[in-house]
């Protein structure tokens, strides 16, 4: 194999002659893969590969193992991070829900019915307000309050009982007639409002505030909330409920419907006990 020698000035004539030696045998004669600078004698030149063929194979294997280990490490890290992001996303969603629930101080009037913004509503006229830690406060809405009128007793579920969304959760008693109302969420009952147990009139005085009925811990909060009415659709739903009631009972309800078809405070005054129970069951979806 040829040896390339660089020319040198006479000043360096006493130094050993240096030659750039290369060998192309590792990957082909036309590719320089191993090189060194070494002193050579005038009479002969010997080339040496810095990396032998066997050592080169070991390097390739080590590189492949390194790439594979790095790939597996990236997959593992991504998996662990995704597991951590899931509860964070859930917490963020819950925080947004709490913020929306705080909007319940903003009340909208729909056909004379108070509809606080930020709450979630079941079509059976119960509501849910998300609190911290997946706890939901529930009660009956203003339409149900006006339709049911004064009640003698509310029978709540016992603390610790599991309840299902869309299934009976408490019962209103009025002059021997009982009407069940549906739970807006799944979960376990954690607390019953002591105020309504002492005085059921708290339901009528402040249905969205002091007249709340129960606190329920919900395991699958997101799924439950998606099944409820929320936002602008609530106003349309309530308008339809008021209009439907007005059209169906225009004659008998005329004394309690104000100008413009606004629902008055107590519809039970013009209904017999049997009609009251049947009407409540229909609108509360518990018949």
CATH topology heading of the largest domain? OB fold (Dihydrolipoamide Acetyltransferase, E2P)
Mean pLDDT score: 76
Distance between the termini: 101 Å
Rounded radius of gyration (Å): 40 Å
Any idea what the CATH architecture of the largest domain is? Beta Barrel
Approximately what portion of the residues adopt beta-strand conformation? Answer: 15-25%
Helix- and strand-based class? alpha+beta
- Strand elements, count: 16
State the strand order across the main sheet: 6-7-8-14-13-10
Global geometry: elongated
Full CATH superfamily name of the largest domain: RNA polymerase II/Efflux pump adaptor protein, barrel-sandwich hybrid domain
Order of helices and strands: EEEHEEEEEHEEEEEHHEHHEEH
CATH class of the largest domain: Mainly Beta
Q: How would you name the oligomeric state of the polypeptide chains in this document?
A: single chain
Low-confidence stretches: 1-52, 86-104
